[in-house]
Design goal:
Blueprint (H helix, E strand, L loop, with lengths): L2 E2 L11 E2 H13 L15 H4 L27 H15 L3 H10 L1 H6 L9 H23 L17 H7 L9 H9 L12 H12 L20 H7 L20 H6 L31 H14 L23 H7 L9 H9 L12 H12 L20 H7 L20 H6 L3 E4 L9 E3 L4 E4 L2 E3 L3 H15 L5 H12 L3 H9 L3 E3 L4 H12 L12 H12 L1 H9 L3 H28 L1
Parallel strand pairs: 3-5, 6-7
Antiparallel strand pairs: 1-2, 4-5
Helix pairs in contact: 3-6, 4-6, 6-8, 6-9, 16-18, 19-21, 20-21
Length: 599
């Protein structure tokens, strides 16, 4: 009883104690903390961290639980103990009283952090006391030289003051401000003037260390009573007043790829296949960088189990303070991660689990296919078209990446053929040969048609944004790994790479509304398809656009079109050529007239 064993797949099946496994899952759910409305200290989203990791990571000292235990920061633990000893001596308050206070506030303290490392109560309280004493003493010593006393290596050689000052201003390296204030409240060295308050000490530190941001004369005019931590303290300095109104931005300008590269921003293309915040399935499970989301998974499992007991109601699925859908808004990273080939679960198991729940079913209850389609049609622009759901068969879908590929599976009318030449003219070259570009009414991206008699090339609209490479790269990888018979995603990438070999090609497609470019520049579109074509597989024997490329090459090889492309590349070339022809004609006429006069 409580044990299950099957013989369908003997190589993977072992005796399984269902009751024991269920107890293990329930135990994990019991230790999961609910989402808190008071959360204010977060890990920096991976999309920001990837740009400059050093700007988010402490170099010398850890404050709070997020970086606690980091081997590179352990050298400062002795310094913390020394500062705690000084803090206790200055305060004339017993360590037991401070521990008592922190214990009373433990739940509130834990709720301030979006992610915890599962510290025991004893360890957590000890860490808070050590780190809080360190921050308080650092601020005191920073303002008052008398407090520096002995030869402190933070304020004397090798002068670690700058590094510590930077570290305590990192979002991931914070303590809630209220606990610093309450600990100070027990000490006779803080209070009313001339004794400093913690707000005054903090302000003094910022006006010295960040003078251009933290303006000295603002302290009496700004309310810091609700400050959450030191980073929040900095943001409050320049919080907009009631007179400063937000408005709609008409023009958005961003640096070009070249300017970003010159500024030291690294290319992030290699991360198009690797999850940033959450692991799904076995491939990336256990990755240290993704472990923080395990608590989130337990919380979601707890909600899923609870909701299977109630009737369907979609109005309150986000009712708690969920850091995916509320600050720090991890939704963008999660949306990308669940669409990576290495981060998938078989679709059938998702459907079967949903089948056990009363919140899924027939309308108005959603099906999993309906929910997935809704997600893709909202998030992936022109690739997942809303009206396709009723006309495309998703019954055999393997996982979410496969779901995406199915949207533009070729129809029976779109035939694969053997490709003789693996080259085609670019958009600019086609334009010079007389081809006209027209936005197709079709929503099917692969439905590219060329009328060789009229010279009209119809291309469906393609929206390009920051996530486009991730989407296409993972469909491309699935197509290659799974050995799909028709590699239409790879064929589409190859064709678009031929079309847009320079920024002028992109400019023409943008002007004709064929490309809706949300990337910073036209050069980035060229780079996008160049990157995608690295490692792209194309078969000469079975190429979806064989007929299209053949017709385009034939059109450009027509004598008149070839001649036109050669001599009418630019308006100036056309004017120059026309002038030469007119000059030649006038010369001939003049010569004939001269001959006639002689005769």
């Amino acid at each position: 009883m409580g044990t299950s064993s099957t013989t369908d797949e003997p190589s993977h099946q072992v005796s399984l104690d269902i009751e024991k496994l269920a107890k293990s899952v329930k135990d994990e759910l019991e230790i999961s903390n609910p989402f808190s409305d008071t959360c204010c200290i977060y890990k920096v989203p991976e999309r920001l961290r990837a740009v400059n990791e050093k700007a988010c990571t402490p170099r010398l000292v850890s404050i709070g639980p997020i970086h606690h235990g980091n081997e590179k920061l352990k050298a400062m633990e002795d310094h913390k103990r020394m500062y705690l000893k000084q803090f206790l001596a200055q305060s004339e308050v017993s360590v037991e009283r401070f521990i008592e206070l922190i214990k009373e506030k433990e739940t509130r303290l834990r709720n301030c952090y979006a992610e915890t490392n599962g510290f025991s109560s004893e360890y957590f309280i000890k860490m808070i006391l050590m780190d809080a004493a360190f921050v308080i003493m650092f601020l005191l010593k920073y303002k008052y030289r008398d407090f520096r006393g002995s030869r402190d290596s933070i304020f004397y050689p090798p002068y670690k003051r700058l590094e510590v000052g930077n570290d305590i201003c990192l979002l991931e390296n914070q303590l809630p401000f209220f606990i610093l204030e309450e600990l100070c409240g027990l000490s006779p060295i803080y209070g009313n003037s001339p004794k400093p308050t913690l707000i005054e000490l903090t302000h003094s530190f910022f006006t010295t260390a960040f003078d251009s941001w933290a303006v000295g004369d603002i302290l009496g005019r700004v309310d810091f009573s609700e400050v959450k931590h030191l980073v929040d303290f900095l943001t409050i300095y320049h919080r907009p007043t009631e007179q400063e109104q937000y408005g709609e931005l008409e023009v958005i300008t961003v640096p070009s790829v070249k300017e970003l590269h010159q500024a030291g921003v690294k290319e992030l293309n290699e991360k198009a296949c690797t999850p940033r915040v959450v692991s799904i399935g076995p491939i990336h499970h256990g990755n240290e960088k993704l472990k923080a989301m395990e608590d989130h998974k337990r919380m979601y499992l707890k909600e899923f189990i609870a909701r299977t007991k109630y009737e369907y109601n979609c109005s309150n699925f986000r009712r708690r303070r969920d850091s995916i859908f509320y600050p720090p808004y991890k939704i963008e990273d999660v949306k990308i991660d669940i669409c990576l080939l290495e981060n998938q679960l078989p679709f059938f198991i998702l459907e079967e689990l949903c089948g056990l729940s009363p919140i899924f079913g027939n309308p108005p209850k959603p099906t999993l296919i309906g929910l997935t389609h809704w997600f893709f049609s909202n998030e992936w622009g022109s690739w997942a078209v809303g009206e396709y759901l009723g006309r495309v068969d998703f019954s055999e879908v393997k996982h979410l990446v496969d779901f995406l590929t199915i949207y533009h599976r070729p129809t029976e009318q779109q035939q694969f053929g053997e490709l003789e030449v693996l080259t085609a003219p670019s958009v600019k070259e086609l334009h010079q040969a007389g081809v006209k570009f027209v936005l197709s009414s079709s929503k099917h991206l692969l439905d590219i048609k060329f009328d060789r008699n009229k010279g009209i090339l119809e291309i469906p609209r393609l929206q390009l944004q920051g996530r486009t490479e991730i989407m296409l790269r993972n469909m491309q990888a699935f197509e290659q790994c799974h050995g799909l018979k028709d590699g239409y995603v790879g064929d589409y990438i190859f064709l678009m790479g031929l079309f847009v070999s320079a920024s002028k090609d992109v400019e023409m497609l943008v002007e004709n509304r064929i490309i809706d470019n949300w990337l910073p520049s036209n050069e980035e579109v060229v780079q996008l398809f160049y990157n995608l074509n690295i490692g792209n597989f194309v078969s000469r024997e079975d190429f979806l656009f064989e007929g299209l490329i053949k017709d385009l090459n034939a059109f450009c090889e027509r004598p008149w079109n070839k001649w036109r492309a050669k001599y009418f590349k630019t308006p100036w070339a056309a004017i120059s050529f026309s002038g030469a022809v007119i000059g030649l004609i006038l010369t001939v006429i003049q010569s004939v007239c001269s001959i006639l006069q002689v005769v």
